[in-house]
Amino acid sequence: MSDDWKTLRAQLPDDVQRRLDAKREERRLGKALADVRKAMKATQQDVAAGANTTQNAISKIENADDVLLSSVVRYMHAIGGGVELVLKTADGKARRVDFDPGIDVKTIVSV
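Structure (tokenized):
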């Protein structure tokens, strides 16, 4: 976070800061991964075993603000899922990158 944003943010009313914090938490990739894991009835240990890593590493991913794409792919593969990335340009064009061509996503369910 830049110093200018920190200064501006500090001047905002407390309720606005709380709403910003809540929105940031909703958008955090690690939280989304944890939500998907829980919906799949998997534990952090289950994911760790499938991703050939430790439970501590999975916890760090779920609590991180910045997650490597390769970690996301490994995480989702560990619970039997996949990853699809949509790259969008300012002019409205989009390109889909499917990291799991063998998985066909028929319905997107919000968890």
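The chain has a mean pLDDT of 85. Helices lie at 3-10, 14-27, 29-39, 44-51, 55-63, 69-78.
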